[in-house]
Design a protein that fits this description.
The chain is mainly beta. Helices cover about 10% and strands about 35% of the residues. The chain has nine helices and 50 strands. The strands form 13 sheets. It has a six-stranded mixed β-sheet, covered by helices on one side. The chain has a six-stranded antiparallel beta barrel with strand order 31-34-37-36-35-39. The chain has a five-stranded antiparallel β-sheet with strand order 8-7-6-1-10, with no helix packed on it. The longest helix has 17 residues, at about 470-490. The protein is elongated. The relative contact order is 0.06.
């Protein structure tokens, strides 16, 4: 019905419950006026403002006289205009008129019920009508003859109004749709016609909705990780919010399991076709699980959130909140135990009684099922018993499975009955428990939880390592439970029961007359049933009240390239792999760990080595000239600039002679490398060091010492941080591909560097011979030398250093200004260059004689030269 247009209703409609709905602008100030009227002075209904703007009235029924309140035949609802929105804005009004007993009127403004009134004696309106047959008008103009007695006849002061909707023949009750107010009745809502309601009554005409015509999306569903969170999944804890609340009957403890089980149950339920029917219209399930979104996966990176609370203040709400970030990979304890059983070939088992949340569990492929289960049983407090051929896993029950009285026990073979109680000595009592575990809410670092009885002075310590990922609260709770259990479990009891008490088996909890509880650990059938039990306290199995704290986070390290240096070095300690090169890596900042991948070709890379610590690598800024090996080099200091990895330090002479301050100086990956030691290192500038008092050419590297190491040569401190890489002996001398970069990044990341290198295996290289001497003898020049060794050459206990090679052989070369004159191989540390051979060679002075030891695996080592002038 349009504003200002008159209409009327048939008799049948005026005798039924009806609902009107319309939008109209309220004036800024309430003045006497008629907003709506129906009927006339006999039977009539009216709504408007009266009493000089003080009262807003809705009345229906008897219209023949002025009314001050409801009576037998008329319903009057009076509201103070001070409580209504006279603000110059448009508002929606809905009013209901019920003429039959009990007759009443109701009024809603903007969806809020603002008032209702009934016939004074509970009967119906006069004659069973809410109005007569006269015209009905909405906002005006008003015919004064049709207005009920005693009400204003001025039209509504505002003309801005929408059409008046009339809902006739409104049925009572909701018996045909009992699901309408059940907000989880998704299936009924989807499969049923929808009828609008006014005042709680269903309208006869349904809405345009076509049942089963559209899929349902769960735009948000989830559950807080808090005790009994599924009782009210929408509740959350946030002290800064006025809506913070715990779910029904929750004790407020963190419970990641209930969150996981809620999500698993929800998804499993709607994944079942019997619960999620297909639509005959669009041919897909009612609930589209591909559009189901769990609240909440946080876009902030875990574990920075929730641990960096100086940045994100809501991080303290994470533990018991709706976040699945950081814990979606956890598994229920029952599923983990079931998987272990299945892999072990055990199929007849029962894990239905297990409850717990496993964040991470480490086990090797060669461990037995028992070895894998044991840390879980210790951490989560459950046991395993065999019952009727089935392996049953269970926690300690909440209540005892039975009671034992001393007089009901059986007589043993000695004719005695009763309870035999034993307590372990005080000296065996553990007073401190330390538990190692992996931190689950951070960077998976190793943590230690400790529990202690503070009143014990002389206490035993129990230390254990669990291959599990736990939170701080879980680690502390387990340590506290173990400590308490160790005290309680000092008491054991044994007794015999008649065969009729087969209801009590291993794993059952019993109660004695004094109220103490005991867990049966062993049952032996010897006619009577011999029982051995240990004392337990059910309260110890309750979750700990400890709260989690923020886990310290390391600063973010960007994936910058690293600086790798490959070094083919001689044996330093004798314990190295002889043919394998070393890798030193420097980076600033250090990325945590560096990965080395290797391959025989440009693809097919495999992880070779992880470098956990950055090496001290620098470059020479001044030249370093050659010096004699085996003597202290007291020459001028040389300068080296250290870019990253730390600094240098001095060491006393004795420490240097015992292996301190070892470094390698070389040209780069291709070598060669000289091994040096130094006693004095002085910082003379930012990252700039002066190194003096040196030992040169160590570990046989004197044979490759150049005349000068120029500025720009590499300096690497050999303090244990450079590591040998894996290299098969068959790959020695062959070019291989290497990629080096931050271990946290993928192999194809731009931060990785690729090198193609071949290594000779300098650890196999013989040392250059020492003390080469020559003297004229009868018939020729007698040349002698002393053999050196690369293996165990520093001991003073033997009469001769070990050979170190399969056979003792040497290569001798004679050279003059014309080039190579003679080359011979000898098997002893001496050789005679006789005059006839020299004459046939045409060797003229000055000439040189070079001697090198030969290795069957490496070939000739460095040469030692002696010049002959005569």
């Amino acid at each position: 019905m349009a504003p200002g247009v008159s209409g009327s209703f048939a008799v049948a409609y005026r005798q039924e419950t009806v609902v009107f709905s319309g939008q109209v602008r309220f004036p800024d100030t309430a003045v006497e006026a008629t907003l709506w009227e129906a009927g006339a002075a006999g039977f009539g209904a009216w709504m408007g403002v009266r009493d000089a703007g003080a009262t807003f009235r809705l009345r229906a029924g008897d219209g023949s006289s002025a009314k001050t309140a409801s009576d037998t035949g008329t319903v009057v609802l009076d509201l103070s205009t001070d409580l209504l929105p006279f603000d110059g804005q448009i508002h929606e009004l809905v009013w209901e008129l019920r003429p039959v007993a009990p007759g009443h009127v109701k009024l809603w403004i903007d969806g809020r019920l603002v008032g209702m009134s009934s016939i004074s004696d509970g009967s119906g309106m006069l004659g069973g009508y809410w109005a007569g047959a006269a015209d009905t008008r909405w906002t005006g103009p008003i015919d004064p003859a049709n207005v009920t007695k005693g009400e204003p006849v001025a039209p509504w002061p505002e003309t801005d109004a929408g059409e008046l909707s009339i809902y006739e023949a409104v049925s009572d009750g909701l018996t045909n749709a009992p699901w309408v107010y059940r907000y989880k009745a998704i299936r009924e809502w989807w499969a049923s016609p929808h009828a609008d309601r006014r005042g709680g009554y269903q309208l006869a005409t349904p809405s345009p909705w076509v049942p089963k015509s559209k899929p349902i999306w769960f735009t948000e569903f989830g559950c807080g990780a808090v005790d009994k969170g599924s009782n009210q999944p929408n509740k959350f804890l946030d002290p800064k919010s006025s809506e913070t609340a715990l779910p029904y009957f929750s004790d407020g403890r963190r419970d990641d399991l209930i969150q996981a089980q809620y999500l698993r149950a929800t998804i499993a339920y709607w994944s079942d076709p019997s619960n999620n029917p297909l639509s005959p219209i669009y041919g897909a399930p009612m609930v589209d699980l591909s559009k189901a979104h769990v609240w909440a996966w946080d876009a902030r990176p875990w574990p920075a959130f929730p641990n960096k609370r100086d940045i994100w203040s809501d991080g303290e709400n994470y533990g018991r909140g709706h976040w699945i970030t950081g814990r979606v990979s956890g598994q229920p304890l029952a599923m983990v135990v079931a998987e272990i059983c299945e892999k072990a070939g055990v199929t007849d088992y029962d894990v239905s009684g297990l409850f717990g949340f496993v964040r991470g569990h480490v086990s090797s492929d060669i461990e037995t099922a028992r070895a894998r289960l044991q840390p879980l049983m210790l951490a989560y407090g459950f046991g395993a018993v065999e019952r009727d051929g089935k392996l049953v896993f269970l926690h300690l029950p909440l209540l005892p499975d039975g009671g034992i009285l001393a007089e009901t026990t059986a007589v043993d073979e000695d004719g005695a009955a009763g309870l035999r109680l034993t307590r372990a000595p005080e000296a065996e009592t553990v007073g401190r428990v330390r538990l190692g575990y992996t931190e689950a809410d951070g960077a998976f670092e190793t943590r230690v939880a400790e529990a202690i009885f503070p009143d014990d002075d002389d206490i035993g310590v129990s230390q254990s390592e669990l291959p599990l990922a736990l939170t701080l609260a879980e680690g502390r709770g387990i340590a506290e439970r173990w400590l308490a259990e160790a005290r309680v479990a000092r008491d054991t009891v044994s007794f015999d029961l008649p065969p009729s008490r087969r209801d009590l088996g291993a794993g059952a909890m019993i109660a004695l007359e004094d109220g103490s509880t005991w867990r049966i650990d062993r049952v032996e059938d010897i006619g009577a049933r011999r029982i051995e039990a240990v004392r337990v306290e059910r309260s110890l199995a309750e979750p700990s009240d400890a709260t989690d704290e923020a886990v310290p986070q390391q600063a973010f390290v960007p994936p910058l390239p690293v600086s790798p240096v490959f070094m083919d070095l001689p044996l330093l300690s004798g314990e190295e792999v002889e043919h394998a090169p070393h890798l030193a890596v420097a980076a600033k900042p250090w990325p945590g760990s560096v990965a080395l991948y290797s391959s025989s070709s440009a693809n097919g890379y495999a992880l070779n080595r992880l470098i956990e610590a950055g090496a001290i690598i620098g470059t020479l800024e001044t030249p370093l000239f050659a010096a004699s090996a085996g003597l202290w080099d007291r020459g001028a200091p040389f300068r080296v600039r250290i870019a990253s990895g730390g600094g240098l330090s001095s060491a006393d002479r004795e420490a240097v002679l015992n292996g301190a301050n070892v470094a390698a100086i070389g040209a780069g990956d291709e070598g060669p490398w000289e091994v040096v030691q130094f006693a004095d290192a002085e910082l003379v500038g930012a990252g700039l060091w002066e190194i003096s008092m040196r030992l040169r050419g160590q570990a046989g590297s004197d044979g490759v010492m150049p005349d000068v190491w120029p500025p720009g040569s590499l300096f690497v401190l050999l303090d244990g941080r450079p590591q040998q890489i894996d290299l098969a002996i068959s790959a020695r001398g062959l070019a291989r591909y290497y990629r080096v970069g931050p271990a946290r990044r993928a192999l194809d990341d731009a931060s990785y560097q690729e090198r193609v290198l071949a290594f000779d295996g300098v650890g196999l290289r013989p040392y250059a011979p020492a003390h080469v001497r020559a003297r004229a003898g009868t018939g020729g020049l007698e040349v002698t030398w002393i053999r050196r060794t690369r293996i165990d050459g520093d001991t003073w206990q033997g009469t001769e250093v070990p050979l170190g090679e399969d056979a003792e052989t040497y290569l001798v070369q004679v050279r003059d200004s014309g080039g190579l004159k003679r080359e011979v191989t000898v098997s002893q540390p001496g050789w005679i260059y006789d005059d006839s051979a020299r004459g046939s060679d045409g060797t003229v002075a000055p000439y040189s004689i070079d001697v090198a030891q030969i290795s069957g695996r490496f070939g000739p080592g460095p040469f030692t030269r002696i010049m002959i002038d005569d």
